[in-house]
Amino acid sequence: MQDDEVSGRAGTIDPHSAGAAPTADSAAEPVSDPALGSVPGPAVGPASGPASGPASGLATRAIRTGHQRTAEGEHCEPIFATSSFVFASAAEAAARFAGEQPGNIYSRFTNPTVHAFEERLAALEGGEACVATASGMAAILATCMGLLQAGDRILASRSLFGSTTMLFDKYLARFGVATDYVSLTDLDGWAAALRPETKLLFIETPSNPLTEMVSIRQLSALARANDCLLAVDNCFCTPALQRPLELGADLVIHSATKYLDGQGRCVGGAVVGDAKRVGEEVFGVVRTAGPSLSPFNAWLFLKGLETLNLRMQAHSVNASALADWLAEHPGVTRVHYPGLPTHPQHHLVGSGPEAQQHSGGGIVSFEVAAPEPDRARAAAWALIDATEMLSITANLGDTKTTITHPATTTHGRLSPEARAAAGISEALIRVAVGLEDLADIQADLARGLETSAASTR
Fold first, then answer.
1. Residues 9, 41: contact at Cβ < 8 Å?
2. For strand 251-255 and strand 30-33, is the pairing parallel, antiparallel, or unpaired?
3. Which of 42, 167, 324, 422 has its CA at 20 to 30 Å from residue 120's CA atom?
4. Cβ neighbours of 416 (radius 10 Å)
């Protein structure tokens, strides 16, 4: 164990001092940790700080929350590109390491830029605490390591990102944490699959790539009734469209790489929840094991959050229109998009009594027509290869529209049986609709659809 591990998470730079004195919101009560001794607890909750002022609306919080202005009077959040922090005296260093005084120590677990991103995202999701990680997958791993132990079970949707399934089945299983899978949309199936050992329910809603949905309210009620936690991967919606904690979920997972950044610039993740589970247990894993977010990436995410609300609205408008267009195209056999009235869970979108997300989001998946099942992959690949503007990449949430073939990319490591159980066919194409002119996106896909049809005649 390195010496820097004996103290906990710290606050940000005091806006009234050029030194590294802790801010008011960093002065949390010490946390007792058997391995590390008494350490200062993490700053939690949606704090706005002196540079932010009152912040009530979502767009305002996305712009103003988390910046603790330094004595330099900067208007933009600074990047604290430092591995460690200097103490005013040996006595102050001793107090920090003994857990008697909060403050920054080492950027693996205490960095003001990262902390600003955490505060801002917690404010947007309505959580008490947020812990940033090096990637979305690191956020899931840290959550499971912090909250589960050997003998526990996860109950998860079959409709998960392929790497999440691999993490559960190939790696967590080695350490005695098993996973059971059910259909995301079958609430009776969720209830029937619960066991006494089940401790965590894990979902994506909407799912990747079929945009299936489940009622977070109903699933959270089931989790509470059975003494389980509910974790929701909110990557597709972000807090601009859906806030799972307000609907009863215990934990929200983010791949910040996607819409939180919004421009495909960097990789990161986050977990949002309460002060105990996230602020202590999940944070303890990140502090000790080190899947930490870099200050530079945190700064990019802060900048991304400033335009999140506007971007998610624009993504949704483009995606909705594209889904309508694809649904009428003769070269398409099926379109998966929550905003379509034909979507099985369309009642969960909008402003109705059961709605949980404000609009359909930016992801549209569709199945291309193929004369025979064994030619479906060729038809899908021909379409993708014929596009000229769309970016062929598995990432999503970018201002640039991206296109991918899930069966051979995002879910390619799954067995054919597992893909079939998840409903991912060889004909399926996922489009993460960007912010280009809609007519240009349609024209590129029309070119691909024409080429696909010609290649399979």
1. yes
2. unpaired
3. 167
4. 10
DSSP labels for 111-153?
Answer: -HHHHHHHHHHHHHHT-SEEEEESSHHHHHHHHHHHH--TT-E
pLDDT for position 40: 34
Contacts of 414-422 with C-beta under 8 Å, sequence gap 24+, read 414/162, 414/165, 414/166, 418/158, 418/165, 421/158, 421/181, 422/158, 422/159, 422/160, 422/210
Q: According to the model, what pLDDT value does residue 162 have?
A: 87
CA–CA separation, 332 and 452 (whole Å): 11
Give just the sign of the alpha carbon dihedral 16, 17, 23, 29: negative
What is the rounded distance in angstroms from the CA atom of residue 457 to the CA atom of residue 450? 11
Place of tokens 């059910």: 182
pLDDT of residue 322: 98
Q: What value does the mean pLDDT of the chain take? A: 89
Euclidean distance between CA atoms 8 and 119, whole angstroms: 17
pLDDT of residue 45: 38
What angle do helix axes 308-327 and 438-455 make, rounded to 10 degrees? 40
**Neighbour tally for 68: CB within 10 Å:** 26
Ranges of residues in the chain whose predicted pLDDT is under 50: 1-50, 52
pLDDT (0 to 100) of residue 30: 35
**pLDDT for the residue numbered 130:** 98
* Contact status, residue 245 vs residue 127, Cβ threshold 8 Å: yes
What are the sequence ranges of the domains in the chain? 309-455
CA distance 261 to 166: 25
Rounded distance between C-alpha atoms, residue 365 and residue 346, angstroms: 15
Give the per-residue pLDDT at 372. 87
pLDDT at 41: 38
Rounded Cα–Cα distance for residues 376 and 371 (Å): 8
* CATH code that applies to domain 309-455: 3.90.1150.10
Q: In what order do the strands lie in the sheet with 129-133?
A: 129-133, 269-273, 251-255, 229-233, 198-204, 153-157, 178-182
Q: Which residue from 405, 402, 403 is spatially nearest to 376, judged by alpha carbons? A: 405
Pairing of strands 37-40, 30-33: antiparallel
Q: How many CB atoms lie within 10 A of CB 72?
A: 9
Tokens standing for residue 203:
């979902």
Q: Residue 227 is which amino acid?
A: D
- Separation in Å, CA 411 to CA 160, 163, 431: 9, 8, 15
CA distance 164 to 128: 25
pLDDT computed for residue 413 by the predictor: 84
H helix intervals, 195-294: 216-225, 238-241, 283-289
